[in-house]
């Protein structure tokens, strides 16, 4: 019997293949990336965090409350959409998602972020 | 407390940069049709899969620490950036925010593609997602370092 010196060559193909429900994870990411982009473009935070009072608010507080942090609210809104999408989208539909979408959607989200924030650089 | 957290945040970010950069380069070298120099043969022979767990864990931890530090940034650094009218630097941080969020939300897909059988299409997705994460990590690290040192650099 012939063996490789110091065992087999480490390769990705030799690992345990994760076949169970990985498509749900990808559905989460695709939906959440799109939802995050929509959340900051259209100002749809799930909640606002007011620094001065140190409290969360689901509505807009008066100006005296100071400027809120929206980022937590955008992130949570996107995560919620992702979780819902992963739960609702049927497995058969998830299996038909083209693999290329996995990188096209994040790349598009990055381009959208650059376009949105270009106002700071002009 | 916040200073200690900022230092740990930076240290974890350095580890994350190392892991994700090695993975991105190793995955690129393994991509079909890519020719490599002999000096890169050892990196090509390494398994890029071994980094995925560490990258996902470190990205999660670094982002959580960043989220805890964020209010402090808003109270101390951002007013200084605005008072000095450093608009571009403000934009750099806004992008850092978006990249941290997008990276975090991409992590499940990133994790999944590194757990699947690597067919050709899957390899393309692996490569793109890994390089995107690497880009986010590098951008966020450099932006973070600039903002931490801002008073020394611009005042």
Please sum up the structure shown.
Chain A is mostly helical.
Provide structural commentary.
Chain A is mainly α and 122 residues long. Chain A is 49% helix and 7% strand. Chain A has helices spanning 22-41, 71-88, 91-95, 101-117; strands spanning 48-50, 55-57, 68-69. In chain A, strands 2-1-3 form a 3-stranded antiparallel sheet. The longest helix of chain A is centred in the first third of the chain and has 20 residues, at 22-41. By secondary structure, chain B is mainly α. In chain B, 82% of the residues lie in helices and 0% in strands. The mean pLDDT of chain B is 88. The interface between A and B is large, with 48 and 48 residues.
Instruction: Give the number of DSSP strands of chain B.
Output: 0
Question: In terms of structural class, how would the helical and strand content of chain A be classed?
Answer: mainly alpha
Question: Which value, in Å, is the CA radius of gyration of chain B?
Answer: 18 Å
**Distance between the ends of chain A:** 68 Å
Chain pair with largest interface: A-B, 48 and 48 residues
Order of helices and strands of chain A: HEEEHHH
Oligomer: heterodimer
Roughly what fraction of the amino acids of chain B lie in strands?
A: under 5%
Structural class label of chain B: mainly alpha
Helix content of chain A: 40-55%
Q: Sum up the overall morphology of chain A in one term.
A: flat
Distance between the termini of chain B: 25 Å
Rg of chain A, rounded, reads: 21 Å
Tell me what portion of residues of chain A adopts beta-strand conformation.
5-15%
Keywords:
heterodimer; A: 122 residues; mainly alpha; 3-stranded antiparallel beta sheet; 4 helices; disordered N terminus; B: 155 residues
Set out the fold topology:
The complex is a heterodimer of chains A (122) and B (155).
Chain A: H1 22-41, E1 48-50, E2 55-57, E3 68-69, H2 71-88, H3 91-95, H4 101-117
Antiparallel strand pairs in A: 1-2, 1-3
Helix pairs in contact in A: 1-2, 1-4
Chain B: H1 2-30, H2 41-45, H3 52-83, H4 87-113, H5 120-148, H6 150-154
Helix pairs in contact in B: 1-3, 1-5, 3-4, 4-5
């Amino acid at each position: 019997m012939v063996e490789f010196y110091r065992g087999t060559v480490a390769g990705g193909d030799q690992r345990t293949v994760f076949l169970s429900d990985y498509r749900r994870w990808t559905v989460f990411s695709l939906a959440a990336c799109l939802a995050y982009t929509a959340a900051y473009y259209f100002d749809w935070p799930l909640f606002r965090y007011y620094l001065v009072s140190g409290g969360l608010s689901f509505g807009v507080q008066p100006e005296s409350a100071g400027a809120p942090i929206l980022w937590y609210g955008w992130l949570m809104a996107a995560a919620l959409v992702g979780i819902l999408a992963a739960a609702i989208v049927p497995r058969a539909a998830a299996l038909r998602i083209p693999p290329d979408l996995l990188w096209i959607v994040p790349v598009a989200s990055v381009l959208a972020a650059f376009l949105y924030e270009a106002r700071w650089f002009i | 407390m916040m200073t200690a957290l900022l230092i740990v945040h930076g240290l974890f970010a350095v580890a994350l940069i190392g892991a994700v950069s090695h993975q991105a380069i190793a995955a690129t070298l393994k991509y079909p049709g890519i020719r490599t120099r002999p000096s890169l043969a050892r990196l090509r022979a390494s398994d890029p899969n071994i980094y995925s767990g560490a990258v996902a864990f470190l990205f999660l931890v670094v982002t959580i620490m960043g989220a805890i530090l964020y209010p402090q940034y808003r109270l101390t650094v951002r007013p200084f950036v605005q008072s000095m009218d450093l608009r571009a630097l403000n934009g750099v941080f806004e992008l850092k925010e978006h990249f941290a969020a997008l990276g975090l939300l991409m992590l499940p897909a990133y994790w999944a593609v590194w757990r699947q059988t690597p067919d050709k299409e899957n390899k393309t997705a692996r490569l793109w997602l890994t390089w995107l994460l690497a880009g986010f990590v590098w951008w966020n690290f450099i932006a973070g370092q600039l903002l931490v040192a801002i008073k020394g650099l611009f005042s």
